[in-house]
TrEMBL record, chain A:
It comes from Eublepharis macularius (Leopard gecko). Residues 126-221 form the F-box/LRR-repeat protein 15-like leucin rich repeat domain. Pfam families: DUF7885. Interacts with incompletely assembled mitochondrial NADH:ubiquinone oxidoreductase complex (complex I). InterPro entries: FBXL15_LRR, Leu-rich_rpt_Cys-con_subtyp, LRR_dom_sf. SMART domains: LRR_CC. The gene is DMAC2. Belongs to the ATP synthase subunit s family. Required for the assembly of the mitochondrial NADH:ubiquinone oxidoreductase complex (complex I). Involved in the assembly of the distal region of complex I. Gene3D superfamilies: Ribonuclease Inhibitor (3.80.10.10). This is Distal membrane-arm assembly complex protein 2.
From TrEMBL, chain B:
One of its GO terms (molecular function) is L-amino-acid oxidase activity. It comes from Eublepharis macularius (Leopard gecko). The gene is FOXRED1. Required for the assembly of the mitochondrial membrane respiratory chain NADH dehydrogenase (Complex I). Involved in mid-late stages of complex I assembly. Its cofactor is FAD. Belongs to the flavin monoamine oxidase family. FIG1 subfamily. This is FAD-dependent oxidoreductase domain-containing protein 1. It is a single-pass membrane protein. It is found in: Mitochondrion inner membrane. The lineage of its organism: Eukaryota, Metazoa, Chordata, Craniata, Vertebrata. The keyword Transport applies.
Length: 270, 517
């Protein structure tokens, strides 16, 4: 209980300090002298960093855990090949797998049991992977990139799948037929653009992507980009933009009038 | 206790000491929590990164603070005096490292110095920038591209490093209690086209890129046509296409994020122009009997904006990250001012070269799959958003090099040089409407179009990081780290950049990067 209490107190200090002039460049006195004069501030400062380090430690633990869970299973890979490694990886993240010839998803949760059962499938191509709702991220996809036979991939509702992750999917360009990205909070149209590599794609689920603004337009563009593929989850009339002129460019560009010269004039808040 | 003899007392003291010591050991395990209570401020390592989490309650508090500050200001009308923020961007009187130029390179060096300093506030770092609106800085006028398709292993490694950095930017640059950074990366790849003559070279280049770990594929004209039906493959013999870690992002976001993080780690930002240095010099004789003048910068003189006043910063190390103007800054420090034949006469050959960028609208242009396309002619373009806008340009030839007095845009250059080439490559561009344009300066190395990184042989305490000739944005992150390593550890640890040193200018060895756009 002590830790959360300390944390809560710490937060007040943190905000206080942040609000003070700690961050601003100081006129003349170098910081050491400055801090000597302010014993209390020094004390709080230390406290602030300690508590921040503590919170930071918590976050690090979390990202370490994420990293651990997404690690490439080199040992399994070396021993049993990429298919089984990917299968074990999916099952560890509480996902589902399907080998060639199977019609049902295999979703065993008991580690001993699935390791035993999956090992019987050595040499059988892995066709489908379901990672929906799991913590898989960019690094985790590294466990899949050697799969030569993947036809179906479900990444729906994965909070850590972002545009960078999508840029790794080009490896499945000849085989992948169905892909679901439904409900991934981080995906934008910038990432969807690199799905054009997937030439065999027949079905793409892009429903419920909160980070995409002009959904109707994105649907049209996706259809143009992937003519052979059925796009589900976005409709033409979803938020069709009123003005297509908007560009997302850094800084502002003004409309060109005559041949006047145009500057990009944005400001960094000083 | 009072009755015990001297030896007993001593033993008792000893015992206490031991107990205290043991207590310390125990305590130190809990260092994060209790260290603050310890009076002796033993240097501690700067905390590192962590994924960012939003914390609603603090933000509320900060909002309140902003309001409070505003009210305070209203209560003291007509006064510039601000009790909560004393800073007026004046530099401190002394600093360990003064970085000249607050572009992406300058801030990256500052960030990495703070990241690598052995304990918190071990280094006093100041970034001096003359123009906080960044009206002329290359960083914000660039097109934000990152690619692996270079031909020097160092350049490829730096780009790969930057890609990893950008991918985990919130781990590196996330600031506690601030919204996460969205770099707006478009993972769309670079597509280099090669003509018949260039094809063998392109293949060679791709081989180098692949050995360095870049994912690049080669495409024949037929494959190109299939992938990009809008492309006219006349005159194209081969193309290379980056599959991962290539694309473009928002330079403003990167600059702001670097700056925000560096400032939060204690870097000082000072507004003003570096106009001169005070150095101290002494003569030395080299092994072959030549007399050379070694010098050391003692003070950096910073002229305050809109005034004749200047302040002097005493410093031990100066980093020249002044981008296109770094040649001039080097000259102020005495680099290249000696007799032309001698070591002291070797200039830093970095000059501003004006480059235009045009933005146009073309409703029937290439779609979402559009890569950053580099034509056989050197003309390039990319998509800009999803509303049918594109941007692109072409580097003028040496004879066409425009005047660099101002950043005026030459519209005829688009009409006569850029447009015909692009319309040939992408027939849909035959009808388009130019919407806007801008110009920026390449920090151009006239010697060999590669950056100059590292120390100077005669001016002992100046480090260079400039001359990127059009790829400094993507390399800034790696270069910042390299310079920090050089300053703090004396050598490169992550990527060996010795080939980019100033010595190559002295010896006249050009190192050539074939893929300069
Ligand atoms: C049109 C264009 C497109 C580009 N496209 C790309 C791209 O796609 N990818 C890529 O990687 N790179 C690109 N670049 C190159 C890239 O922008 C630069 O290499 C990079 O921004 C250099 O950063 P910098 O910090 O060194 O320079 P700058 O951003 O120019 O910063 C230097 C700063 O130093 C300040 N300064 C100068 N002299 C002094 C002084 N005496 N005292 C105080 N301050 C001073 C200036 O005010 C300036 O703000 C492009 C450049 C241009 C012009």
């Amino acid at each position: 209980m002590a830790a959360p209490m300390a944390l809560r107190h710490g937060r007040v200090f943190i905000s206080l300090l942040r609000a003070c002039s700690r961050n601003s460049s100081h006129s003349t006195a170098p910081s050491t002298g400055l801090l000597k004069r302010r014993g209390l501030l020094q004390y709080l400062c230390d406290r602030f960093y300690d508590i921040e380090a503590f919170v930071d430690g918590g976050m690090k633990l979390k990202s370490w855990n994420l990293e651990r869970k997404n690690k490439h299973y080199i040992q399994i890979c070396e021993r049993y090949g990429d298919n089984l490694a990917a299968a074990v990886f999916a099952l560890m993240l509480k996902g589902g797998i399907r080998f060639q010839g199977q019609t049902e998803w295999y979703r065993e949760r008991n580690e001993k049991r699935y390791c035993l059962e999956v090992s019987q499938y050595q040499g059988v191509p892995l066709e489908a992977l379901d990672f929906s709702g799991s913590v898989i991220n960019y690094d985790g996809l590294g466990s899949l990139v050697n799969l030569k036979t993947l036809k179906y991939l479900d990444l729906s509702r994965c909070p850590n799948i972002d545009d960078w992750s999508l840029s790794r999917l080009h490896v499945f360009r000849d085989t992948l037929q169905e892909l679901s990205l439904a409900g991934c909070p981080q995906i934008t149209e910038r990432g969807l653009a690199c799905l054009h590599h997937l030439e065999s794609l027949k079905r793409l689920d892009v429903s419920d992507l909160p980070s995409i603004a002009n959904k109707g337009l994105v649907r049209i563009l996706l259809e143009e980009m992937l003519p052979q593929c059925e796009i589900v989850g976005i409709h033409y009339d979803d938020e069709l933009p009123l003005c297509l002129e908007d560009d997302t460019h850094q800084g502002e560009t003004e409309e060109l009038q005559g041949v006047a010269c145009i500057w990009k004039n944005s400001k960094i808040p000083a | 206790m009072a009755g015990s003899g001297a030896p007993g007392l001593a033993r008792g003291k000893e015992g206490e000491k031991l107990r205290m010591l043991r207590g310390r050991v125990l305590l130190s395990r809990w260092r994060p929590l209790v260290a603050a209570a310890r009076p002796s401020a033993e240097p501690r390592r700067q905390f590192r990164t962590g994924t960012f989490r939003q914390r609603g309650r603090f933000q509320e508090f900060e909002k309140e603070m902003v309001k409070f500050r505003k009210r305070l200001k209203e209560a003291l009308p007509g006064s510039e005096w601000n009790p909560l923020n004393i800073s007026k961007d004046l530099p401190p009187e002394q600093a360990d490292v003064v970085i000249i130029g607050g572009g992406v390179v300058g801030w990256s060096v500052a960030f990495w110095l703070k990241m690598k300093e052995p304990w918190r506030n071990a280094l006093q770092v100041v970034v001096v920038e003359r123009d906080l609106q960044y009206t002329k800085a290359s960083t914000v006028l660039s097109v934000g591209g990152i690619r692996q398709q270079f031909t020097m292993p160092e350049n490829i490694q730096m780009s790969l490093f930057s890609a990893v950095f950008l991918r985990s930017i919130n781990d590196y640059l996330g600031v506690f209690n601030q919204p996460p950074i969205d770099i707006q990366f478009n993972p769309s790849g670079y597509l280099f086209l090669a003509s018949e003559e260039g094809a063998a070279m392109l293949e060679e280049n791709v081989k180098i890129q692949r050995t360095e770990g870049a994912e690049v594929s080669l495409l024949s004209p037929a494959q190109l046509k299939k992938k990009f039906p809008w492309l006219n493959t006349d005159g194209v013999a081969l193309a290379s296409y980056g599959l991962e870690n290539e694309g473009w992002f928002d330079p403003w976001t990167l600059l702001n994020a670097l700056r925000r993080k560096a400032v939060s780690m204690g870097v000082y930002q000072s507004r003003g122009e570096v106009t001169s240095f005070n150095s101290f010099s002494r003569e030395m004789m080299t092994a072959d009997g030549e007399v050379v003048k070694l010098s050391r910068i003692k003070h950096v003189n910073v002229q305050m904006p809109d005034s004749t006043e200047y302040s002097s910063v005493k410093c031990s190390i100066v980093v020249n990250a002044a981008g296109a103007w770094s040649g001039r800054v080097a000259e102020l420090a005495g680099v290249g001012t000696g007799s032309p034949q001698s070591l002291a006469g070797v200039k830093l050959p970095v000059e501003p070269k004006k480059r235009y960028v045009y933005v146009w609208h073309c409703p029937d242009g290439p779609g979402l799959e559009t890569p950053m396309l580099i034509d056989t002619t050197g003309a390039y373009f990319r998509r800009e958003g999803i509303g049918g806008n594109y941007l692109g340009s072409l580097s003028p030839t040496e004879e066409e090099e425009p005047d660099t007095q101002d950043l005026e845009v030459d519209h005829d250059f688009f009409q006569e040089k850029v447009w015909p080439k692009l319309a040939h490559r992408v027939p849909a561009f035959e009808s388009l409407k130019v919407k806007s344009s801008w110009a920026g300066y390449y920090d151009y190395n006239t010697f060999d179009q590669n950056p100059v990184i590292g120390a100077h042989p005669l001016v002992e305490n100046i480090y260079f990081a400039s001359g990127f000739s059009g790829h400094g944005l993507q390399h800034s992150l790696a270069v910042g780290q390299a310079i920090a390593e050089l300053i703090l550890e004396g050598e490169y640890k992550t990527i060996d950049l010795r080939r980019f040193s100033f010595y190559r200018l002295v010896k006249g060895n050009k190192i050539l990067e074939r893929n300069i756009v």
